[in-house]
């Protein structure tokens, strides 16, 4: 008599034989979650999981010098933002005056033209410029130099004469400033130049 064990064994061989005959294969049950992809590095022959840690913010107190430097930079940046539009406009007018006077040899005509444009400048700038601080005035003169290629002393001397230029230079001296301030974008005025370029990008100014 055939036992139940033998019957089960025969049945198992029978299933395997049928599968083999039909060319089918037996697969273990699988799931998409069986495999987890992870970055790894090989260190001294060992495979070690690699992870990117979240950024950890780190704060520290500024030194006295760092606070002083930042205060100076902030003051300069504010002054440039306030005065650059005036320097740009004044520079455009002055450059236009220069272009006009190149072909004008008559002294009376030159003087009359300069007086007309001087009134234009005074009307446009007198009120806003009186509200500038001495420091902002210094920055403005540097920026006018940047726009025209001439310092304010040379501009006044050209338009009003040497005596007037010396007078304004003396007045400027009492206000701790200098009409002859140069503009060196690659030297001492490099920070100012960076801020000017920032202003130009922000407001879409073009040369």
Topology, element by element:
Elements: H1 4-21, E1 40-43, E2 46-49, H2 64-101, H3 107-130, H4 134-148, H5 152-160, H6 162-174, H7 190-203
Antiparallel strand pairs: 1-2
Task: Explain this structure.
With 207 residues, the chain is mainly alpha-helical. The protein has a domain at 66-203. Mean pLDDT is 78; it is low at 5-28. 14% of the residues are buried. The radius of gyration is 40 Å and the shape is elongated. Helix 2 packs antiparallel against helix 3 (107-130) and helix 2 crosses helix 4 (134-148). It is built from seven helices and two strands, in the order αββαααααα. Strands 1-2 form a two-stranded antiparallel ribbon.
Strand order of the largest sheet: 1-2
Q: Tally the helices.
A: 7
What average pLDDT do the residues reach? 78
From the alpha carbons, calculate the radius of gyration and give it in angstroms: 40 Å
Distance between the termini: 108 Å
Write down the overall geometry: elongated
Q: Beta-sheet strand percentage?
A: under 5%
Helical content (DSSP H or I, runs of 4+): 55-70%
> What is the strand tally?
2
Taking the sheet with the most strands, its summary is: 2 strands, antiparallel
Structural class: mainly alpha
Could you state the order of secondary-structure elements as H and E?
HEEHHHHHH
Poorly predicted segments: 5-28
């Amino acid at each position: 008599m055939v036992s139940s064990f033998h019957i089960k064994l025969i049945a198992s061989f029978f299933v395997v034989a049928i599968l083999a005959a039909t060319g089918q294969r037996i697969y273990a049950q699988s799931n998409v979650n069986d495999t987890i992809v992870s970055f790894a590095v090989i260190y001294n022959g060992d495979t070690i999981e690699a992870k990117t840690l979240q950024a950890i913010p780190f704060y520290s107190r500024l030194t006295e010098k760092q606070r002083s430097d930042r205060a100076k930079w902030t003051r300069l940046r504010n002054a440039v933002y306030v005065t650059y539009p005036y320097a740009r406009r004044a520079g455009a007018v002055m450059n236009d005056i220069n272009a006009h006077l190149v072909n004008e040899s008559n002294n009376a005509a030159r003087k009359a033209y300069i007086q007309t444009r001087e009134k234009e400048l005074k009307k446009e700038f007198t009120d806003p410029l009186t509200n500038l601080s001495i420091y902002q005035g210094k920055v403005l003169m540097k920026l006018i130099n940047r726009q025209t290629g001439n310092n304010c002393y040379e501009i006044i001397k050209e338009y009003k004469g040497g005596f007037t230029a010396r007078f304004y230079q003396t007045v400027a001296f009492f206000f701790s400033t200098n009409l002859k301030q140069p503009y060196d974008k690659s030297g001492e005025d490099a920070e100012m130049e960076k801020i000017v370029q920032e202003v130009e990008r922000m407001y879409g100014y073009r040369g």
